[in-house]
Amino acid sequence: MGKMMNPSTDKPSPVYPTHRSATEASSSLEIQEVKECDSNSNAEIRNPLNPRNWSSARKTMLFASLMTSSLLADGAMVWGGTLVTEQAMDWNISITHSATSMNYGILLQGFGGIFAVPLIEAYGRLPIWLWPQVITMFMVLGATLSNDWSTFTTFRSLQGLFGTVPQVIGLPIIHDMYTSAEWPQMINIWGTTFLVGPFLGPAIAGYIGAGSDWRTSFGVLTAIYGVSTAMVIFFGYETYHEPGRITKQSRFASYFGIGNTLLPKGTTLRYWSRTVVVYVFKFPLLMTGIAILITFTWPIGITTTIDNFLHSPPYLFDTIEASSMRFAGVIGALCGWAVGHFFNGWIFKRHSLAWRTELRLHGIWLPIGSMTIGLLTYGLTMHFGKHWIGIAIGWIMVNIGMVATIVAISAYALEKYPEQATCVSAILNMWRTCGGFAVGYFQPAWIQRNGLGLVFGIQAAILCVAVASTITPVFLWERKRRLRNAEFEDGA
């Protein structure tokens, strides 16, 4: 109980997006791991019940199962992005109205991740991974069989609520199963699924829909969820391990959260629920979260509405062509990850002798510039009806900015609060999805009223002002805190 009630001594789930910073932190983390093992450290290193001592085959299959679930989290939520036109005709509604079927699901992804955190800590990883996955599979099936927009949207919303869990649970699983030296590599591999999923999913859906119809496409998605769920059942194991435990956990019981952790359930749920709320309103997380909301709003707006424009004059793309355009988003996301990853490392190298965590945030200025230029390029290309290559280039630049910005902000937040990495990740995910939810409701009408060129120009201006207004105060807050600490040390 004493350990649980003091956040500074909780078992950490750190995430460090650069190899260098992970290496820096590994020595202190390893010291903490040794303390957790106490006098049984030698026995713990050899303990076959410790997930870090599992066979490579078991680890690999469990991680592959996690990857399929994670790829579906965002990828399946926007799966229908290339099918909204066909659905609009099927249900006799406008294309704009049809496109909003994803909005509530995107919003509930953020809250689903928040709700998952206390449950993961109280009942373990496996049951909170498996059962939401099963529920999500049936929600996709329900959407596939829906005969009207309202029913379809209801199932899609519940899909978002339950299907987001892999975006949160991956961090504690990686922390439990791998050593600190392995964390950066495994987190980078796992994190890549979130970069390509939102763009790869709609592309595949469109290809399938072009050869059949939207129901067949969603039927295939249901089957994919079924395969992923089967992988979790057969290859998923509970990874939570209390040092010194020597009693083998029942595999069947672990599916239901029985005996996975020895913590008191009610107290643990209350503690982590309170912790999540407290961290939401911590000033650095609040301000950087708002920055993420603004940064993600416009790119998600592109992702959910681009088909409306590609199918209209002067482009008149068919389903295959519109689906293929999604690979511009994939390219931009992967390039954004590379830019953020290596630029983040360069910032650390340059300031390593006088390192301060908030210096991570300098990694957003270049990406925000790319995103601003990308929004202008995207909007003006469509406004003047220029060649589609301008749309692709603009989208690539927008996604470079979006992903590189979240890399920098995540690096700052997770390095600042390493002992609460799972909680912090869920909070950042909540801000991201709130932005994605909102844009689908006001952007189409805004574009119709003011035109593409003006709208995307205003979006670029809002982006610059909002990010500067939220990130600059964090630098000032950190400076004030540092000076206050220095004065306290001098007084002591």
From TrEMBL:
Record field: transmembrane: 61-81, 101-120, 127-145, 157-175, 187-210, 216-237, 283-306, 326-347, 359-381, 387-414, 421-442, 454-477
Keyword Transmembrane helix in annotation: yes
SUPFAM superfamilies noted in UniProt: MFS general substrate transporter
CC terms in the record's Gene Ontology section: plasma membrane
Domain Major facilitator superfamily (MFS) profile: 60-481
Topology in membrane: Multi-pass membrane protein
UniProt xrefs under PROSITE patterns: MFS
Any one GO MF annotation of this record: transmembrane transporter activity
InterPro entries for the chain: MFS, MFS_dom, MFS_trans_sf
UniProt keyword terms in alphabetical order: Membrane, Transmembrane, Transmembrane helix
Stretches with biased composition (Polar residues): 1-11
Main location: membrane
Region (Disordered): 1-28
Keyword Transmembrane helix in record: yes
Subcellular location: Membrane
Name listed for the protein in its UniProt record: Major facilitator superfamily (MFS) profile domain-containing protein
Taxonomy of the source species: Eukaryota, Fungi, Dikarya, Ascomycota, Pezizomycotina
